[in-house]
Amino acid sequence: MPNNAAYDTRTTVPANRLAQAVGLNVAARAAVVAGPNWPAEFDGTPIVFSGFESANKTPEVNTVGFNWSDTSLASVVTMDPDPLIVYDSNGPTAERPADLTKDWTAKTGDYALRLLAPAGSNWIEQPWNTTSTGIKTLWWGVDMRVPTNFYHNRQDSVSKENQKLFRIFMDSYTGHQTSGGGTKVGMAFRPTGANDGSNYWYVKNFNEFSNSGDMGNKRFITIPQDRGKWMRICFRVQCSSTPGVADGSIEVWRKWEGEAGFTKEFDYPNQQIPIRTLAGSIDAFKQGHLFGYQNSAYAVDTEFLWDNFELAEVV
User: Fold this and answer.
1) What range does the domain containing 173 cover?
2) 58-71: per-residue pLDDT in tens?
3) What distance lies between CA 168 and its chain's CA centroid?
4) How many CA atoms lie within 13 A of 174 on its CB side?
5) Fewer CB atoms inside 10 Å of the end CB: C or N, the chain?
6) pLDDT (tens digit, 9 = 90+) per residue, 24-42?
7) DSSP string of the chain, one letter each residue
8) Distance (Å, rounded) from C-alpha 60 to C-alpha 206?
9) pLDDT at position 35
10) What is the domain count for the chain?
11) In this model, does residue 283 exceed pLDDT 60?
């Protein structure tokens, strides 16, 4: 069955769309263990699924008090059949973009999260958080569509070229800078030397014992052939058993649309990934960001679509 067909609610009576969409997504998530959305190595228990099929940011599955923060650069969008914003930082809306040729087709279902990188702007992020006191082994998965006009600009300094893809952290974004403040992990990407808009991605691990540099160097997006394509990213992070002990791990998989299975892109065992030991109720991972500061601002408005955001815990 094609991806969209499994979640197609467009022929449903409008008043019943929400109930049908939520029911479909809950059923789909309950049926999936190591299926289309996770690699074969998946060993977690799903705790969050956000497919945006409620036409807002309310997750369809949520056992840890998950919440998306509202931000002016993030909105829930659909095609009906023309592009339409149905939810933004002010709540539900029905706003058309000036350009009706935009394609905001979701990966599955009718709705997706749109993150806009305005031309010349460096800030673009979608924060999320949970009420959990911390997850020591966390799976994180999401579908991301490469913008149809994607181009990674070169700068006059390498330090100005890295873009943040996502971050996962404990009590605060900067908590890792304090002894006992835990760990921040994530991924970022830099342009290739070819200066053709293509780039590579890598892992980051920040904590009081090991503030890593760029871990890895694998092609992320190749221009022009990857424009407009969806990729599924899955990230598994396991905390160290004891602060100062290098027995944590970071693993990353990816599957491009049309591919039969996942490819393991990064595998870093024996990592220092300490839990938070400062006094308080938080000890491990409980929040994060999609994207973050973009050092190399995009030359033109650039739109990323995200869909099927999931978290799972290994217990």
Assistant:
1) 4-313
2) 999 999 999 999 99
3) 10
4) 0
5) N
6) 444 444 434 445 799 999 9
7) --TGGGG--TTS-GGGHHHHHHHHHHHHHHH-SSSTTS-TT---EEEEEE--TTSSS--SEESS--EEPP-TTEEEEEESSSEEEEEETTEEEEE--S-TT-----SSSSEEEEEEE-TT--EEEEEEE-S-S-BSEEEEEEEEEPPTT------SSGGG--EEEEEEESS-TTGGGSTT--EEEEEEEEE-TT-SS-EEEEEEEEESS-----EEEEEEE-TTTTTT-EEEEEEEEE--SSTT---EEEEEEEEETT-SS-EEEEEEEEE--PPP-SSSS--SB-EEEEEEEBSS--SS-EEEEEEEEEEEE--
8) 32
9) 59
10) 1
11) yes
pLDDT beyond 70 at 44? yes
Number of neighbouring beta carbons within 10 Å of residue 263: 12
- Mean of all residue pLDDT scores within the chain: 90
254: CB partners within 8 A, 6+ apart: 231, 232, 233, 234, 262, 263, 265
| CATH code, domain with 187 | 2.60.120.200
Query: How far apart (Å, rounded) are the C-alpha atoms in residues 187 and 16?
Result: 39
